[in-house]
Design goal:
Elements (H helix, E strand, L loop, with lengths): L1 H9 L5 H15 L3 H8 L15 H5 L4 H22 L4 H16 L12 H11 L2 H17 L2 H18 L3 H17 L1 H9 L10
Helix pairs in contact: 2-5, 2-6, 3-5, 5-6, 5-7, 6-7, 6-10, 7-10, 8-9, 9-10
């Protein structure tokens, strides 16, 4: 019985062609650099030339335009949601493949030399598209950690650790495995934040800089 459960966890019934289409669809959707597009449309120039050089909402916020940062956050999340939700019409495996590819597309967009965002917003968006209730868990963990530590980055990183564990325990085997991989990638992308956290130099919520 145990072997069968493990086998089912790693089995993939979606054919190579539908899998490829799902991956391509998700990647192309996820690779849309909303942060760069919105800042340019607003006449604020290239967001990659300020702050961390990132195209995500946090760096867009460094332009001083909170509405633009909020719009970037929302759109970066929704592209992950759309990829996973639309592809799921052809089965959960198609949704998983498209959601994962959207996440990778945001992090490594071909249009920008594979230099994208750090992935938290798109991570949440994919979660919303596949297992919506888990977004509440992510939010609860983030809020709890933020209240305790006042570190936004630490709160997000801890939340990404909790999500795949709860998914796996709750019976979302394949989705849990994919989110475990996404968590690993997210932590790698946040290695500079982790170094600053360990050094005690990471900015806290409410602090400037």
């Amino acid at each position: 019985m145990g072997r069968k459960c493990v086998s089912d966890l790693f089995s993939w019934s979606l054919g190579p062609v539908p899998t490829g289409i799902s991956l391509l669809f998700g990647y192309l959707l996820g690779s849309i650099p909303f942060g760069l597009i919105l800042t340019r449309m607003a006449g604020l120039g290239d967001v990659r030339k300020i702050g961390s050089g990132n195209i995500g909402a946090t760096n867009v916020l460094r332009t001083g335009n909170r509405k633009l940062a909020a719009a970037t956050l929302l759109l970066d999340a929704l592209k992950g949601t759309a990829a996973a939700a639309i592809a799921s019409r052809w089965g959960i495996e198609a949704g998983i493949a498209a959601g994962f590819a959207a996440f990778l597309g945001h992090l490594y967009p071909v249009w920008l030399g594979f230099k994208g965002g750090k992935g938290i917003a798109t991570y949440i968006g994919v979660l919303l598209g596949l297992v919506p209730i888990m977004v509440l868990l992510f939010g609860a963990v983030w809020l709890a950690m933020a209240k305790i530590s006042r570190y936004s980055s630490l709160s997000a990183l801890v939340a990404t650790l909790v999500v795949p564990v709860v998914l796996l325990v709750s019976g979302y085997g394949k989705i849990g495995l994919v989110f475990a991989v996404m968590t690993l990638i997210t932590w790698i992308k946040h290695r500079a934040n982790i170094q600053r956290l360990l050094a005690g130099t990471e900015s806290r919520i409410g602090e400037k800089g």
